[in-house]
Amino acid sequence: MLDFAAGGGVAGIAAARAGAAHVTASDLDAFARGAIRMNAALNGVAVEAVAADFAAEVGGGGFDAILAGDVCYERPMAERVWPWLKAEAAWGVEVWLADPGRTYLPKEGLSAAARYAVPTSLELEDRATRETTVYRVEA
After folding, report:
1. N or C, which terminus of the chain has less Cβ within 10 Å?
2. What does pTM read for this prediction?
3. Which domains does the chain have, with CATH numbers?
4. pLDDT digits over 97-128, tens only?
5. d(CA 132, CA 69)
């Protein structure tokens, strides 16, 4: 299982706690990878933190599932990641995308599975709570 653009690794840690056999959390930011390692240790789970750019190659990671959260906040990131997520889904990978209503979220190819009210910081967002939707990426 891959937690893509993992930040602090919350999705990957949740997957590991739920019984995922092997979890890789990928983030290009060194501070994020450090946070993933610390958070995984604090939660008593094994999560491999890596700096690999998995979006560069379809099927290259060999993952059975990909979790991606809040990756559509900027046009360049969304335009780069979306085709890869779609291709992975077409390859047979179970792909899930969580998004709090970002501008560059694709309008098609997603099936909403759940919605959550997520507390946020006014230093980072324009409101104290954002509704976040978890989507399954359609093949």
Report:
1. C
2. 0.91
3. 2-137 (3.40.50.150)
4. 999 999 999 999 999 999 999 899 898 888 89
5. 10
